[in-house]
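We now fix the convention by which a protein and its fold are recorded. The integers have meaning only within a learned vocabulary of local backbone shapes. The record below shows the convention in full.
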Amino acid sequence: MAESRDSGPWDALEAGSTAWGDFRPSEQERIVRHYAPKIRFLALRLKTKLPRNVELGELISAGTLGLMEALGKFQPQLGIRFETYAENRIRGAMLDELRRLDWFPRALRQRVRQLDEAMRRVEHEKGRQATEEELQTLTGLDAKEVRQGLEALQSQLWLSLDAIQDSLSNEDGQSSVGEPYQSTARQEMVERVAPLIDTLTPREKLVLSLYYTDELNMRETAEVMGITEGRVSQLHSQALARLRRAFLAQYGDVDVQ
């Protein structure tokens, strides 16, 4: 953040020496501007997991409300850094907004159902994942529509399980001390999903590991695995769709936020 090297009112907020409501309006404005880049960063990161019709501005607006909520409710005596606390609030507000919006167009929602049914049928009849060509034949969709539908399936999964990745990759190891219910719910989600990952094929596991743990992009993942970028995308979508179906079949639609 641009002002992070200089001391400012955010230091007093972090230390607990001044509560949010006790700052002058000009100081409150400086604090909001100080943390604003975090909102955009989180919105951009979430946007990569969503269909193209979701506007970045909607995520940023929701995240701003999350930041304001965090500023008003922050309790430094709980021993958690404000930035860590605010990040959870910002992300939660964005996900809540996505759940509230009907961000899947009706045609796309129908396409997702068609693909889900076709994938289940191939798995049941042939004991393996369906190829994109088989999905095109079974659904009557063209290649572009199939890819869009698989992307939407992927987005549905990561909206439900997005908290898991942050729980597993928390850089400073801090938990949401002030929110024991949320922390417990997230840990329970991690424990539920972990055994489901074992149901994936070795190549699907490798794609997810390279993409989410090692944070390689699709092109880099393709180079490591010695396959095409299109094949990486297909394996990625298949793995997330399989996890989603397995999770919903075993636990139903669980909200972790």
Notes: The mean pLDDT is 76. The chain has two domains: 9-100, 106-163+182-251. The two ends are 27 Å apart (CA to CA).
